[in-house]
Amino acid sequence: MKRETKLMHYGRPAHPGPANPPIVRASTILHDSVTSYRETKQRRETDDSVLSYGRRGTTTAHALSAAICDLEGADACFLFPTGVAAVAGAIAPFVAAGDHLLVVDTIFPATRSYCDTVLKRMGVTVDYFPWDTTDLSPYVRPETRAVIVELPASQTYEVMDLPALCHDAHSRDLIVIADNTYASSWLYQPLDLGCDVSVIAGTKYLGGHADVMMGAAAVRGPATAALRKHTHSTGQTLAPDEAYACLRGMRTLPLRLERHETNALALAKWFQTRDEVQTVLHPGLPGHPGAALWSRDASGCNGLLSVLFADGFDAEAFVDRLALFSIGSSWGGYESLAMPASPNSGRQFPNPAHDGQMTRFHAGLEHIDDLIADLAASFAAAT
Ligand SMILES: *Cc1c(COP(=O)(O)O)cnc(C)c1O
């Protein structure tokens, strides 16, 4: 069955019944016999869909988790209250004091911050490597345990050769974790390409309406048991209302992504025609670093693009004048956004071509003609 069809049926309650899995709020789950209580506790250690206690999620969260698990092709999927909690929860099971973690330099800034503060304080050594690495030998040490990557790169969208990196990492017995938020479990399948864990900030396209915070870690193979144990030991879960809203948003994920992709690519090509613009960064533009790899391994792009404005052009005033693009961080909702970006800040391998006035845009679901008219009006007001 096609993914689009399955997406309409995840979590469907028995007939007669509602189309959506109901919001089930619970802490305690009640039993009529000690046997039932004992059996439930035993079954839940190997079956994540067993309703046993609110901290392990109720049926609402289980429906969402099963949906993401299936889309990612995972053996199990654990839910978290934010994307950052999922990133932290996906790394922590695989490193301990004295271990070494490798992180791609183009990672999401909050992930870098977790590695550089919390992990370092726990005694984990962290090193960064460039996005175009496929041979980890210059970076790996005897105590290296795991690698975390993200692609396309945060704010600059370079694309890694993930199958090649996973092949190299696995030959060294390293766990590979990929932040799959850009593709949001739909456009790209890190587990099929060799990763052990795929992390998604559902705050973005899964929820899709700028009103949900959540994260997920989908896992395949031998890493599953350690991730399950760590998630439960640290009390990570997702509240039923958030799980409901996220699964509701996901029903339209492919439709929304199609529109976001078309709009973003149209904006990217339009920005390229403007004298005020120096460079447009978008992984679907020919010549973008890794564009060929992305079209080899992924089925499309999302609504993000970054624009480096020409020296002397007042990019901040340009953004301030926009009416349809609000200024804000995050992305993945239906709305168009603009945000000042400085991708090189904090990076160990900065790209001098990215220095300057960069704005990260998120193309929302508005009509493309209106978005371009808004941008054109702001350019016109500058002269
Ligand atoms: C937004 C984002 C996160 C963090 O998600 P939150 O829900 O905001 O904590 C992690 N990784 C990437 C790539 C993101 O874009």
In DSSP terms (H or I, runs of 4 or more residues), the helix count works out at: 12
The largest β sheet comes out as: 7 strands, mixed
For the record, the CATH architecture of the largest domain stands as 3-Layer(aba) Sandwich
Bound chemical compounds: pyridoxal-5'-phosphate
The count of β-strands is 12
Structure description:
The protein has 383 residues and is α/β, with parallel strands linked by helices. It folds into 2 domains: 248 residues, Type I PLP-dependent aspartate aminotransferase-like (Major domain) (Aspartate Aminotransferase, domain 2); 130 residues, Aspartate Aminotransferase, domain 1 (Alpha-Beta Complex). It contains 12 helices and 12 strands. The strands form 2 sheets. The chain has a 7-stranded mixed sheet with strand order 1-7-6-5-4-2-3, with helices on both faces. The chain is globular and about 80 Å long. The chain starts with a helix and ends with a helix. Pyridoxal-5'-phosphate binds next to α4.
Quick overview:
The protein has 383 residues and is an alpha/beta fold. It contains twelve helices and twelve strands. The strands form two sheets. Strands 1-7-6-5-4-2-3 form a seven-stranded mixed β-sheet, sandwiched between helices.
